[in-house]
Structure formats: C-alpha cells, structure tokens
Automatic annotation (TrEMBL), chains A, B:
Full protein name: Quinol monooxygenase
Keywords: Monooxygenase, Oxidoreductase
Record-linked InterPro entries: ABM_dom, Dimeric_a/b-barrel
Keyword Oxidoreductase in record: yes
Domain of life, per lineage: Bacteria
Pfam families membership: ABM
Amino acid sequence: MTFANVGTLGVKPGQRDEVVAILTRRSTDLDGAGCLSYEVGISDEHPDTVFVSELWVSADAHQASLQLASVRAAIKEAMPLLSGEMGGDRFEIVGSPLRN
Amino acid sequence: MTFANVGTLGVKPGQRDEVVAILTRRSTDLDGAGCLSYEVGISDEHPDTVFVSELWVSADAHQASLQLASVRAAIKEAMPLLSGEMGGDRFEIVGSPLRN
C-alpha cells in the first residue's frame, strides 16, 4: 500500500538553502527504490525549516531506502546543519478524489 | 510555484472511514482546478485522524478550490464528523531528488 512520509526538519539559522541543496540533489538511487514522489519545500513563515513530502510504494521501501549509499551520504552531510527539531507524520494512502 | 498542503484532520471516534469516504469521493471539479495530487491516508497508530497530502500548481489554485461546489459540499458534509483538532503545514516546493 502506498506509504506517505511528510515532515519538517529544523535547520540551524542560515543553513536552510544548503539543506535544500542536499535534499534536492539528483539521486538516481531513488529511481529503483520505490520512491513515487519526493518533494522538498520551504515557507517564508518558517525560515529555519525544510519541509518534505514523500510517497513510496510501501513502508518497507521507505525503510530500505535509508540504507542506500546516496541517502546515507545525504543524511551524513545534512546532519550538522540541522537543529534537531523534527516533526511529521507517516501514513498509508487509501485514496484520492483525483482517481476513481 | 508548486504549493503543498499537508495536514491532519481529527475525527470523532468511529467516524474516520466516513470522513475518508467523503474526501476520496471522485471530484471532477478538481481536474481543472490545478490540483496535481490529493492523497488521503490513515494510520493504525492514530485511529481518530485522517491525513491529507496535496500538491497544487499554486497557493492561489488551492485557495480558489475552496470555493468549488464539490469541495464546499464535502467540507459541509465532513464538518460534523470532525473533532476540531487540525494540524499541518503549507509550503512551496523547491525541488526533488527525483528530478534534475
């Protein structure tokens, strides 16, 4: 069942754009990993936060992706730039008004 | 710029599936309204919550959609089933590791 991971990453002051650059770097690893969508966002109202909204073919695919070399490298690179504040939700997709 | 609206809707006990049914009912209104994605989800860990993750062509398109007949009808129908607890984030999409 399609799995969603949406969340927020708090970043140290002034580090948002660098974290965005790391998270949006093209990752061909993800192409075969069951990642359906991985959107990274920002909000003027929250200048020290990076937002992510991901869809995966399954929760297992998401979990397994955390072991991919490119994902591990991105996490390692971003970690020193994060404040430690994190939020978010994980859920199973059950439908959409855009589909029958 | 692509706009994301992700959020949670608290529902009264036992009403989750009904709220899911309302939110996932096929809405052809949305097809021409700039809605790129509208996923509705649930989580066993939070039985009284419905999750939504939406992408729109712009924040304005999202705002305008709230006036669509089908959307207004759905809100009216779901409202009595909601607990009043709501959460979420709105942000602008700046990139994805799935795209160059």
